[in-house]
Structure formats: C-alpha cells, structure tokens
Amino acid sequence: MQIAKNAVVHIHYTLKNDAGEVLDSSDGSDPLVYLQGHGNLVVGLEKALEGKKVGDSLSVSIPPEEGYGVRNTDLIQDVPRSAFEGVPKIEVGMQFHADSNHGPRTVTVTKVADDTITVDGNHPLADQTLHFAVEIVEVRQASKEELSHGHVHGPGGHHH
Which residue in 20, 27, 31, 131 has the most C-beta neighbors within 10 A? Predict the structure, then answer.
C-alpha cells in the first residue's frame, strides 16, 4: 500500500539541522505513527512521503516555509514580570503556554530583565531547513474512528 491521504504510517526518522546535528530521532525506540494528510507532520515531510511504500527510505530537506515557518518578529514580545505571578524564578529557555489572537501558543523566554520578560512565540525550529532521513516501516488504512478524530489510535498512536 502506498502512502496517501487517510493512511496510517509508521516511520523511523532522524532530523538534523544545517550543521548536521541530530535534533530528533526515533532511533532506538518505536517508530513514529501518524495519519497522512491530517497535519500530523510538517507539510513538507507529508508531501515528500506521499506515494512511498513500506521499505522505502528517503532523505529530504524541508525549507522553513514547509516546516515550522519563517520567524515572525510580531511573535516576540516584552511582557511585564507581573504576568508570571506565582513563578518564583524565571530563566531563559523556560516555556509557558499563553493565549494569543490565534489560540493557545507555547512561548519561550529569551530574555529576563528586572521588570520585563521577553518571550518568543515562534517555534524553536522556525527559520531552519529541516533535514530528514526516513524509513517507511508500515502503512495501513485508517479506521473510521481514527479518521473522525484526525489521529491514530492504539499502539504508537493516541490513547483516549
């Protein structure tokens, strides 16, 4: 079976940056399982996997526009320290969930000053080209329940 919309796909992958550093990998663990065509992966990787089948391997570079996006300076803000009431120590690199005009967003602290905290709502991999090495391990048709929920159920997938 080829990878197409509504297929449940099991892949092993390694993700590297432009410097060749490994950012993430399924090596030594279970494969990543996702539902093709439902936004479960970055769009560029889903496009590259379309039409592949079990046993295929590929290396693909995904530009920021089809990965985690281009850095948006509007998502970098100075926030009053008072907005972090109840957090005794705020450090660069800490992440928080914030409500935005586009729904909930994860923000990362990039600077800590006396009265203000600078947070960045861009994905940490924004502006980066993603280099994937992928092996397709299994492909099957999704169940009706998986399709209605938009994600995979069972081993390697989501559990309700």
Answer: 131
Closest CA to 132 of 24, 40, 28, 19: 24
Domains of the chain: 7-68+126-149 (3.10.50.40), 73-120 (2.40.10.330)
Count of residues making up the chain = 160
- Could you tell me the pTM of the whole model? 0.83
At residue 16, the 3 state secondary structure works out as: strand
d(CA 12, CA 47): 17
Nearest to 120 by CA among 137, 143, 100: 100
